[in-house]
């Protein structure tokens, strides 16, 4: 059995035009199923192959209709120069609008920048004024503190002077009674002084009384600087003396070693002290 194409199908259209397509009589059982015909000769076999090739070959692409320009009504003339001029005017108007917007935005930014600079300068001036006011207040406070300190120091110095005067008066009264006893004690001590007494005497001579009750702030600073310089000088002298003492000790040890070495290897008969022993 073989399937036959319907009338008017793609295969029929590929083989024959619609007007020349052969008529296929319908079958009682089925309009499409037919018994296989007897074998065909070579020419009919070739035609059958050609029909199969045409049946399965791809269809050609549909043809695109050509673009047709719009029809211009008769009697009217298109002015391309006018169209170009209008387009140029439109572009120029848009460009001018953009330029105006740009300059307006720039002007606004410049105004904001000027306002910001003015605000910064105003705040800077306010801060400078506040700093000046605080500096004046601090100066006044420091002056009050110095004045109060000087007043207290004067009161303490005055009170101390009164106490010293009272103590001196009491000691003078006591000296009249105990003066003879002190003279006798000094005579008993004798003329010869011990090392401690000499040290105390030298320190008492070098030690100067520090009277700073009547001094102001600047004088106290000068006195402190003077004492600092003096301490620095004493430390320098102490260091020099210690280095000198170390050098002398080293020289003494070297000389002692030389003497010991010479006595140990000295030539001669008899007993002698060599290396701390007698031989």
UniProtKB/TrEMBL annotation:
Top-rank taxon, per record: Eukaryota
Gene Ontology molecular-function annotations: tropomyosin binding; troponin T binding
InterPro entries associated with the record: TNNT, Troponin, Troponin_sf
Region (Disordered): 1-47, 125-167
Function: Troponin T is the tropomyosin-binding subunit of troponin, the thin filament regulatory complex which confers calcium-sensitivity to striated muscle actomyosin ATPase activity.
Stated family: Belongs to the troponin T family.
Protein name: Troponin T, slow skeletal muscle
Originating organism: Sousa chinensis
């Amino acid at each position: 059995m073989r399937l036959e194409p319907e009338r008017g199908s793609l295969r029929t259209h590929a083989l024959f035009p619609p007007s020349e397509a052969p008529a296929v009589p319908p079958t009682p059982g089925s309009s499409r199923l037919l018994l296989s015909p007897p074998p065909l000769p070579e020419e009919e076999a070739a035609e059958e192959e050609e029909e199969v090739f045409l049946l399965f070959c791809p269809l050609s692409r549909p043809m695109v209709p050509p673009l047709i320009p719009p029809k211009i009504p008769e009697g009217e003339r298109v002015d391309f120069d006018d169209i170009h001029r209008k387009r140029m005017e439109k572009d120029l108007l848009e460009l001018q609008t953009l330029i105006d917007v740009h300059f307006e935005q720039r002007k606004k930014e410049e105004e904001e920048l000027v306002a910001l600079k003015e605000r910064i300068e105003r705040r800077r001036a306010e801060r400078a004024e506040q700093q000046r006011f605080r500096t004046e207040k601090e100066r006044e406070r420091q002056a009050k503190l110095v004045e109060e300190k000087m007043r207290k120091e004067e009161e303490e110095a005055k009170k101390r002077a009164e106490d010293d005067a009272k103590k001196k008066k009491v000691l003078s009264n006591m000296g009249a009674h105990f003066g003879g006893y002190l003279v006798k004690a000094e005579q008993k001590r004798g003329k010869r002084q011990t090392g401690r007494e000499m040290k105390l005497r030298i320190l008492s001579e070098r030690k100067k009384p520090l009277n700073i009750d009547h001094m102001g702030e600047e004088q106290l600073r000068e006195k402190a600087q003077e004492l600092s310089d003096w301490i620095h000088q004493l430390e320098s002298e102490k260091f020099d003396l210690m280095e000198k003492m170390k050098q002398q000790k080293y020289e003494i040890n070297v000389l002692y070693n030389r003497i010991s070495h010479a006595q140990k290897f000295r030539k001669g008969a008899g007993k002698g002290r060599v290396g701390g022993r007698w031989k």
